[in-house]
Amino acid sequence: MMSHANKSLPLSGLRVVEFTHMVMGPTCGMVLADLGAEVIKVEPVEGDRTRHLLGSGAGFFPMFNRNKTSIGIDLHQPEGAAIARKLALTADVVAENFKPGTMKKYGLDYASLSQENERVIYVTCKGFLPGPYEHRTALDEVVQMMGGLAYMTGRPGDPLRAGTSVNDIMGGMFGAIGALGALIQRGITGKGQEIQSALFENNIFLVGQHMLQYAITGKAAEPMPNRISAWGVYDVFTVKDGEQIFLCAVSDAQWKTFCEALGLQHIQHLPEYADNNKRVERRPQLLATLREHLATWSAQELSELFERVGLPYAPIRAPHELLDDPHLLATGALADITLPDGKGADTKIKTTLLPLTMNGEMLGVRRDPPKLGDGTNEVLTQLGYDDIAIQKLIEKRIIA
Question: Which residue from 33, 26, 13, 171 is spatially nearest to 96, judged by alpha carbons?
Fold first, then answer.
């Protein structure tokens, strides 16, 4: 149950029961958990398989399951499904991200639960909203490919997925936003509702600006590496010793500062570079001139110079380098968590928090990512099961 320390958080006292795995559903639950909700993660008795993924999946479970408690339930056994329904009926919000029809098999769909609890808010995180595609199996990469994002990210003829689980994460966030809206409406009407969020539709929202670009201009958007930039100076430059840095000047005032700072007064007032649109029209020749001029500068020198004169710039960083970023460390945007490794030993690492503050503070980690079944006894006791009944359920592998 909620601790005293959570009472100042906006969702304190709210119970969320999530039947989720991978990234999208757990992200929805994590957002609600970070905002103060009590989130109970229902896992298979052998545990969520994302606990043990390798490679790019190694960060899934610890990233998206903090601030939750865990209970393992075998939904395939009737007694397990009954426990899950009993638990779900105590929830303000139920979240799931399984294939269409899965939850209905166990009486855990919105229609079944809302008959007994009209206040329940039910968040379904799907691949596609209802329509011709809804029964397809969706993954982030699938919808990026079919939804125009991979086309826009890669070079022409070389579609490339974005470098993180953008649709899974944002799809979960939109599910949480829907739940928050439904909570406000429930406060007025007394009734819950079903929320559906989907990977494909999320991806379409992401590329919507390019769809509108075509609708307005009649010209299809080029992939980002081949696009016509809106700005004359807006690019990655390779400088001294092969280092790279992103530099830009997105207004005529910034162009003036850019030229003066870098000793480029000889091109600053040329008629062909008189304003941003003219610089865009002559971008290839301008960038060639700039690349030659910048080749003798180090990335550090350029960073210090642009910082001093107030121009936008960015060193090119890999994600692992951000664990030591001085700004993130100073603002508290990284928090320590302890990883359950399945062997009883614990390892502390840093995780990223929601990118917002409330009352001037980041929303922190109250609970480490849960060990399988760390909340089982407490949750079942609340549901009316005594110690003997709980032990029998564990022995029969109905719960964990």
Answer: 26
Residue 276's alpha-carbon distances to 41, 235, 247, 257, 273, in angstroms, are: 53, 14, 15, 14, 7
Beta bridge partners of 313: 247
Q: Using CA atoms, how far apart are residues 84 and 383, in angstroms rounded to an integer? A: 10
Q: In one letter, which amino acid is 386?
A: D
Look up residue 4 and give its two tokens: 């005293």
Q: Report d(CA 246, CA 254) in Å as an integer.
A: 15
The predicted structure's pLDDT at residue 7? 62
CA separation for the pair 29, 369 (Å, rounded): 12
Show the tokens assigned to 283. 């971008």
Evaluate whether 110 touches 194 at the Cβ level (below 8 Å). Answer: yes
Q: What is the CA radius of gyration of the chain?
A: 26
Residue 362 gets the label, from left (phi > 0), alpha (psi -120 to 50) or beta, of: beta
- Report the pLDDT value the prediction gives residue 346, as an integer from 0 to 100: 66
> Rounded to an integer, what distance in angstroms lies between the CA atom of residue 334 and that of residue 40?
24
Q: Cα dihedral sign for 124, 128, 133, 136?
A: negative
Predicted structure pTM score: 0.93
Task: Indicate the residue type of 201.
Answer: E
202 touches 170 (CB < 8 A): yes
What pLDDT does residue 2 have? 36
Q: Which residue type sits at 9?
A: L
If you ran DSSP here, which 8-state letter would residue 5 be given?
G
Task: Specify burial of residue 67 (Cβ count, 10 A radius: 0-12, 13-18, 19+).
Answer: buried
Give the amino acid at 112: S
Segment 305-354, tens digit of pLDDT = 999 999 999 999 999 999 999 999 999 999 999 997 654 446 789 999 99
Set out the domains of the chain in order of their start, with CATH numbers.
Answer: 4-206+333-395 (3.40.50.10540), 229-319 (3.30.1540.10)
Residues 38, 70: Cα–Cα separation, whole Å: 11
pLDDT tens string 118-129? 999 999 999 999
Give the per-residue SS3 of 144-193: HHHCCHHHHHCECCECCCCCCCHHHHHHHHHHHHHHHHHHHHHHHHCCCC
